[in-house]
Specification:
Elements lengths: L26 E2 L6 H5 L7 E2 L2 E2 L6 E2 L7 E5 H6 L15 E6 L2 E6 L2 E2 L11 E5 L2 E2 L13 E8 L13 E7 L8 E9 L3 E13 L3 E12 L4 E2 L12 E15 L2 E14 L5 E2 L1 H5 L12 E2 L7 E16 L4 E18 L10 H9 L9 H9 L5 E18 L7 E21 L7 E23 L4 E25 L14 E2 L20 H11 E3 L6 H5 L21 E29 L2 E12 L2 E2 L3 E2 L9 E2 L2 E2 L2 E16 L2 E24 H4 L3 H8 L9 E25 L2 E14 L4 E3 L12 E3 L11 E13 L2 E12 L2 E2 L13 E6 L5 E7 L6 E2 L2 E12 L4 E8 L7 E7 L2 E6 L4 E9 L1
Parallel strand pairs: 9-12, 16-20
Antiparallel strand pairs: 1-2, 3-4, 5-11, 6-7, 7-8, 9-10, 11-12, 13-14, 13-51, 14-15, 15-17, 17-18, 18-21, 19-50, 21-22, 22-23, 23-24, 24-25, 25-26, 26-29, 27-28, 29-30, 30-35, 31-34, 32-33, 35-36, 36-37, 37-38, 38-41, 39-40, 41-42, 42-47, 43-46, 44-45, 47-48, 48-51, 49-50
Helix pairs in contact: 4-5
Length: about 900
């Protein structure tokens, strides 16, 4: 552990309960555990140190020459924040959403929603310093924690892999030697919430071994309610979480310690898929103007998900007089399964049913068959997304650091290794469709990272320190898989697929050969039929696929053409493509920093830091469609890069004989090689000179087939400042706040394909993001918090009021908002499909979130004699609703919303 710098001296230290607004400063003293405060209730509220380990050493936040935000379990509990998606209202600059049980994290506009096997987070998640490559289900780890901390800005040198925009680390409570204690807690709240927690610290051998065990269970009804006619369906975002954690700490010698950790996390319920405002937007309804957007018309069947996530780790340290040696090794296993209806997310407004009837194109609202169409094709449609994904990863890190006694020169050097194997299956049965089935079966995806790093800090004088560090990384990823689209000529008659009883072979599929019949010609009709049959293990009770493939006549309903049968019909495209991709990259991240202590309580600093995100690649493309399977190309995707320059000052001042914490920082971030989907001419992939020349003619009459690929085409910059403060007002009152200003801009030349809309040529137009803002980066964030702790008969009482205001922001890089071109129809493009003129505004393209104010309240009482505590909380007092994530395409405006107002009571007994 590092020695504490002079500026970290305690300022009337006490144990922390209530975080200051933004959680980026010193926290206020405990309202339930500080005995000294209970004896002196009329004295000013104490300020207590905030301890962080964002740089892999333990230090106070005031001594850290950089920006970090943090909050403890007790601080979060006091406001009813029990999940990672709750903390954006507490930690400034942080935006978090949950989609399909995946935790999507953004810090100051940098993040990623790429949750497939080829994607990686851009803000590196950690659990007790162990990197978690697939953060599905990570919100369940939010129990018996010491704190959650976010290091802001690229951290490629110190934290390593994928720390492009920062890192988040969930730090759990560790065993304490020679101490027997614990707690039991029960909570109840609205949405039928029931929560149970408990922990036990056991001394095993005096001064040598201790253990800590903790358990957690939480359930609640859906936040997104089903108000459609199928009232037996339960809705989205119900919760059924279970967690357990065990730490065993062994210290056979004073200088030698072992920490063994095992945890098990399970997340079930109906999952999160968002609310689709497409129909509502076309009817003129802006999602920002809806007081309760969490109302949907469910269809077909109840969604289900089951995430099982567990891990084992060893953290051992041996200390000597000249260096410390640390090894951290971990294994983590994830298995995510879900069965979600493709539909059933429509926002429930009075015209939704009629809009769905009109979208079908078979009948009009009010026609005699309209009710039949609605019951059959909308509420009786069993189209689904079926996920079955696994991830098994292990990490090894060997660190050498300066001894604890080091003062003038402190250093760290190490080697890091990461290996992950994924198996990913996504099956998409499409009920009532002439294209009845799609499958993405990636049976083997491997990622590997090797790095070495060094970092040192030298005290030039007693007050002036300089830091320099670098990390060399070698990243690689490869994948062997199989994609299949069943294109069958059904004579326009929809095939029924996915009805109850339908199941797929999934990852167990044996046949993956596009030339299934072995005649040397891939993806003939016979091949597609054979592959289709090999992928289905059982047909549903109302499926017509088996009858169709057997040559029988099928007629789904009164809608959709004449009777179709298999003999004599042909394929209509699609087929199978064997996937084989690989990419690797080497890069160096570095940082340089200087810090100067003006006094023991005032410090100034400046730094430069770099970070990278691992490379990837696209799905395999058939670059010669005229000769299927002869020229398969897998275009690479290079690493993304960010660089940050920051200057700041941290100060503890005395105002009216009370401490005032005042920290300020200004920053500039350059973000390059950002990955976006864009269109590429197939001729360029096929190295076809004639085709390339045709594409360059800019003649719209000459065909130039294109394919949409992920490419490194984006670049942006961000500037801003952050001001944090905390002050004791006396009489047990404390006030704290944060101001964060962000100015983000994409640079000109960031040309991307706009897949949200179709241009005049029938494909998504190409637009320039230049001048747009980074997503999820509100220009202004204001946090304010007021809390008080005071003595009452028998113990201590405390209360807290927390408020956050955020100005408007955009959820995608397109910045679709009123008056923006990205919210308008494209009415003209040039020969390269670049948008040149815009028409009417389209509300369905909006991704602008209006400014909002969020408030939380907490009230607590601790009975001193029994060591029992009761807490009342209201999270999101005004029940404000704002979108946190958007998925928009030609027929979808899917939005994830923040949790609604929740309130409840917790009762805890400590012993």
């Amino acid at each position: 552990m590092a020695t504490v710098l002079p500026i970290s001296r305690r300022v009337r230290a006490g144990r922390s309960v209530l975080t200051i607004m933004g959680a980026s400063l010193l926290t206020m003293t405990s309202a339930f555990a500080a005995d000294e405060a209970a004896q002196k209730p009329q004295e000013p509220a104490e300020l207590a140190e905030v301890v962080v380990s964002v740089e892999r050493v333990t230090q106070t936040l005031q001594s850290y020459a950089g920006t970090a935000v943090t909050a403890t379990q007790a601080e979060l509990d006091s406001l009813g924040a029990t999940n990672l998606v709750d903390i954006p209202s507490i930690l400034p600059g942080v935006e978090i959403s949950n989609y399909e049980d995946n935790t999507n994290i953004y810090v100051r506009g940098i993040g990623s929603d790429a949750n497939t096997e080829l994607g990686d987070p851009a803000v590196a998640p950690h659990l007790d310093d162990v990197y978690v490559a697939r953060p599905r289900g990570l919100q369940v780890a939010f129990f018996d924690i010491d704190r959650v901390e976010v290091n802001v800005g690229p951290q490629g040198t110190v934290r390593g892999r994928n720390a492009l925009g920062g890192t988040i680390n969930i730090v759990s409570k560790k065993p304490e030697m020679n101490k027997f204690d614990g707690y039991a807690q029960v909570g109840v709240g609205n949405y039928n919430e029931k929560e149970y927690r408990g922990a036990l610290n056991l001394p095993l051998v005096n001064d040598m071994a201790a253990a800590r065990f903790s358990v957690y269970s939480s359930t609640h009804d859906p936040f997104v309610k089903n108000v459609g006619p199928l009232r037996n369906l339960t809705g989205w975002e119900s919760q059924d979480d279970l967690g357990a954690r065990m730490h065993v700490l062994v210290q056979p010698l004073e200088q030698w310690s072992f920490l063994l950790t095992g945890d098990y996390l399970r997340s079930r319920g109906t999952g999160s898929r968002g609310v689709d405002f497409f129909n509502a937007a076309n009817a003129g309804i802006n999602f920002n103007d809806v007081s309760d957007p969490r109302r949907v018309n469910m269809v077909a069947f109840d969604p289900t998900q089951d995430t099982r996530h567990w891990g084992l780790s060893l953290n051992t340290t041996y200390k000597t007089d000249f260096l410390n040696v640390q090894y951290i090794g971990a294994y983590r296993s994830l298995h995510y399964q879900s069965d979600h209806p493709s539909n059933g997310r429509d926002y429930a407004f009075p015209g939704d049913d009629n809009a769905n009837i009109e979208r079908g194109g078979f009948v009009h609202a009010g026609d005699p068959l309209a009710a039949q169409y609605l019951a059959e094709r909308v509420y009786g449609n069993y189209s689904a997304l079926i996920w079955d994904t696994t991830s098994k990863m292990h990490t090894h890190e060997l660190r050498f650091t300066s001894p604890d006694s080091a003062s003038r020169l402190t250093w760290a050097a190490g080697l890091y290794y990461f290996k992950e194997h994924q198996d990913v299956f996504l099956g998409i049965p499409q009920d009532y469709n002439t294209l009845p089935y799609l499958e993405f079966n990636q049976g083997s995806t491997n990622g590997e990272s090797k790095s070495g790093y060094g970092d040192l800090t030298f005290a030039v004088t007693d007050k002036w320190k300089v830091t320099a560090g670098a990390r060399y990384s070698k990243e690689s990823k490869d994948r062997d898989g199989f994609n299949f689209i069943a294109g069958l000529d059904t004579n326009g008659v929809p095939i029924r697929t996915g009805t109850p009883g339908f199941s797929m072979a999934g990852l167990a599929r044996a046949l993956r050969n596009p030339d299934a019949n072995g005649n040397g010609v891939p993806n003939e009709l016979a091949d597609i039929v054979a592959l289709y049959r090999a992928g289905v293990t059982s047909y549903g009770i109302n499926d017509t696929l088996a009858t169709f493939l057997a040559g029988g006549c099928v007629q789904a309903s009164a809608f959709g053409g004449t009777c179709a049968n298999y003999p004599g019909l042909k394929s209509t495209g699609g087929g199978a493509t064997v996937q084989h991709g690989a990419n690797s990259s080497n890069f160096v991240d570095w940082r340089a920093r200087t810090q100067y202590e003006l006094t023991d309580s005032n410090m100034a600093y400046g730094l430069v830091a770099l970070g990278h995100k691992a490379p990837s690649f696209n799905d395999t493309v058939d670059a010669d469609p005229a000769h299927p399977g002869t020229k398969l190309i897998t275009p690479p995707v290079g690493p993304e890069k960010s660089m940050m320059v920051e200057v700041g000052s941290k100060n503890i001042l005395q105002v009216a004989d009370r401490p005032l914490v005042l920290n300020a920082s200004a920053y500039y971030v350059k973000y390059t090689d950002q990955v976006f989907s864009s269109q590429v001419a197939i001729a360029f992939l096929a190295n076809d000179p004639v085709g390339e020349a045709n594409c360059r003619t800019n003649n719209p009459n000459i065909p130039c087939p294109t394919v949409t690929l992920n490419q490194n085409v984006g670049k942006s910059r961000s500037i801003g400042f952050q001001l944090d403060s905390a002050y004791s007002l006396g009489h047990g009152l404390a006030l704290a706040g944060t101001v964060l200003y962000q100015n983000t801009r994409y640079e000109n030349g960031s040309l991307v394909t706009d897949g949200r809309r179709v241009g005049p040529t029938g494909t998504g137009p190409v637009i320039d993001l230049g001048g747009n803002e980074l997503p999820r980066s509100p220009p202004l964030t204001l946090n304010m918090r007021l809390n008080q702790a005071f003595a009452v008969p028998g113990g201590m009482a405390d209360w807290v009021v927390s408020g956050t205001y955020k100005t408007r922001q955009y959820l995608t890089a397109f910045n679709g908002g009123p008056g923006n071109n990205s919210a308008r129809d494209v009415i003209a493009v040039d020969a390269r499909n670049n948008a040149t003129a815009y028409g009417a505004e389209e509300l369905r393209l909006f991704d602008k979130v209006s400014g909002y104010f969020h408030m939380d309240l907490g009230l607590g009482y601790t009975h001193e004699a029994s060591n029992a505590r009761v807490e009342l909380y209201i999270n999101n007092v005004t029940d404000e609703a704002h979108a946190t994530q958007a998925g928009i395409d030609t027929r979808t405006q899917e939005l994830i919303f923040n949790p609604p107002r929740t309130y409840g009571v917790r009762m805890q007994v400590s012993f």
